[in-house]
Write the structure tokens for this entry.
Amino acid sequence: MECTCLSRKEVKPFVSQKKERMDYYDNKEQQREGVGRRKGDGWMNWESWEFSSWRDAILSCLTPSAYGKRWKAEGRLDEEELRSCRPRLKQFWLETVEHLLDLQAMSSIHLCSAVAQPAVVVMSVKMEELEVFCKQLPKIELHAHLSGSITRECLHEIYKKRKEAEPSIGLEDPMIVIPPGKVDYDLETFFPLFSKYIYQLCNDVQSVRYSTKRVLQDFEADGVAYLELRTTPREFKETGMSKEQYVETVLESIEQYEKDASTSMKTLLLLSVDRRDSFQKALGCIDLAIRYKHRGVVGVDLCGDPLRLQKGDVTIFREVFAKARENGLGVTLHFAEAAKTSSDEELLVLLSFKPGRIGHVIHVSDAIRTEISKRKLALELCISCNVHAKMITGSFQDHHFRDWWVEKQCPLILCTDDVGVFCSTISNEYVIVAQHFGLTRLQLWELSFQTIDPIFGGEEEKMRLRNLMVSWREGNKL
Ligand code: IMP
Ligand code: ZN
């Protein structure tokens, strides 16, 4: 069953105010903790909207009339507002109840705080079950930066090896530089992590080989069936490694990994042009991609710090990406990541490169949005990255995934972007959309299935993935 969506104004009366009236709690301590109790019923948690039973959730004060009346009495909405939203709210709650009844194993229900948001939603039965489901679901990852996907643990191992060989190494332990659990890197603090640290740590054949292998293992262990990994070719003056050698090392690592009989994930490579690159440098990247097509390079990307465009004009890349397309490479672009570089003018130039997919898609005007919908462009959405890096206002439930999901014009692709930094795996991104936007298991499967078409990996690979997904669905009786 599909969720009903209401506008922000319509939902306003039902927005959680968290600090609820004292009579929902047994004592002050419970109130402070946010865990309350409705007399005679089970428990509920106002912070997380958890209820001990679905009946409690539905029958508690979360009904339109009860909330509406109270909020009206408190002067938070006027009569007209209440009248205008009532019929749709009623419909919404009826559907919500049906939706809850559809769910299995209803021992505990989490009504996420998105209840209060426009993409109104209900959800999630037993978190662990959902997590297991999302992990087992065959998934496709199309937007993952190699260096950003290396875990802190892996960086730490590389550091230890280098430190043994070179005790005077002028680098700190990654566990100090990128403390475990820290995910709140914003656009100012995120990019220097690479330029000032990770690139200096992983700067030779061994570390690139080792980190690539570990990244592949991590994705496969998380249930990824097909991966398009992207990386910016770089050279290391200190170790004499050229861009060619870098790309070869990554490709060799993928080939090695796939030779192992116990692996079944398919990995292909995209090469990234950095927004700060000159025309010549960018062209060099495309030429490398063309040269290594036969070894598994299937596309190119435009990435890099969106706040620091060297020439202030993306038109210099037009010819570069045209060459990529002429040579049969897929094109994907980081798109509208920062407000400062998301003018209609700039975005129209990017769209003129005819990308097959675009990533992030945050700061888009109505006109650009309409154009994207018209083209039915596949959207690589990186929810956790956008939330943690404060690239969007608000939290998970405010992510623009909701708008595009409701609109149904463009294929949506959940992506990690930089799982090593933001620590949210691709299966966790599926958990997030179930939790915050109310997707059922079948819808999660459909979401994964619709990411097959936008891959750059060719028809044969698409067939393999379709067969895999269909048999998984049948096996899981979805
Ligand atoms: P690499 O290309 O494998 O070295 O991965 C790290 C690089 O990817 C960074 O230096 C950035 O240029 C790019 N990158 C990672 N995440 C983002 C993002 O969210 N936006 C734009 N570029 C990114
Ligand atoms: Zn990215």
Notes: Residues 137-475 form a domain with the TIM Barrel fold (CATH 3.20.20.140). The two ends are 13 Å apart (CA to CA). Confidence is low (pLDDT under 50) at residues 1-25, 34-65, 100-126. The chain has two domains: 2-130, 137-475.
